[in-house]
Amino acid sequence: MRQRSRKFAGIFIILALLIIYPAIASVIYDKLLTGTPTWVLLLYFAIVGFAWAIPAGIVIKWMAKPNVNNPRIKDNN
């Protein structure tokens, strides 16, 4: 897959991540953490608030990979 195609697909993957991830985090909070002490909530939201960067970073790294020199693929750039 060319880098241009990976970037195009990566945009949609990251958008999906930014929609689905907070929804899951909110459901976990609503179902499991309602009524817990404030320090637990602070710790949970601190971890969850930064944890989305791990999968997003993996996708961005994948998007930034250079093209493979394959003689069958004609590069029009």
Low-confidence stretches: none
Mean pLDDT: 89
Number of helical segments with 4 or more residues: 3
Count of distinct strands? 0
Portion in strands: under 5%
| General shape | elongated
The overall number of domains is: 1
Structural class: mainly alpha
Radius of gyration: 18 Å
Distance between the termini: 14 Å
Sheet with most strands: none
What percent of the residues sit in helical stretches (DSSP H or I)?
A: over 70%
SSE ordering: HHH
SSE order and pairing:
Blueprint: H1 3-32, H2 38-51, H3 53-63
Helix pairs in contact: 1-3
Key terms:
0% strand, 71% helix, 3 helices
Account of the protein in words:
- The chain is mainly alpha-helical and 77 residues long.
- The chain has one domain (3-63).
- It is 71% helix and 0% strand.
- The chain has helices spanning 3-32, 38-51, 53-63.
- Helix 1 packs antiparallel against helix 3 (53-63).
- The longest helix is centred in the N-terminal third of the chain and has 30 residues, at 3-32.
- It is elongated and about 60 Å long.
- The model has no long low-confidence stretch (mean pLDDT 89).
Task: Please give a quick description of this structure.
71% of the residues lie in helices and 0% in strands. With 77 residues, the protein is mainly alpha-helical. The chain has one domain (3-63).
